Amino acid sequence: MLKRRPTGRRCARRALAVTNATRSPALPDVPSLGDFLPGYDASTWLGIGAPKNTSADIVEKLNKEINDALADPSMQARIANFGYTAFASSPTGFGNFIAEETKKWGKVIRAVNIKPE
Question: How many other C-beta atoms are found inside a 10 Å radius of the C-beta of residue 94?
Fold first, then answer.
């Protein structure tokens, strides 16, 4: 649960925990579920992809420009304002991350027998 930062009004909700493996920098006083359930991580992430047949030169240029933008303190602050943490990666690193997430959530889907509707 992401609790909005106060905007002058009192917030009637209280965050019990974040679903990341570690505490969120946006809510440092709110525990993570990983604090109570070691290994638990259901974090939200965003990424940018390109069509499969995009040339390596274009992918490399996009990756460099995106990573440069993510390294900018003002961009990091804007991203943090939404409760996220920016991290740069390589196309291979991001592909590996997606493969691991797919594997992790595939196990969950099979364990609880989720079927498409």
Answer: 16
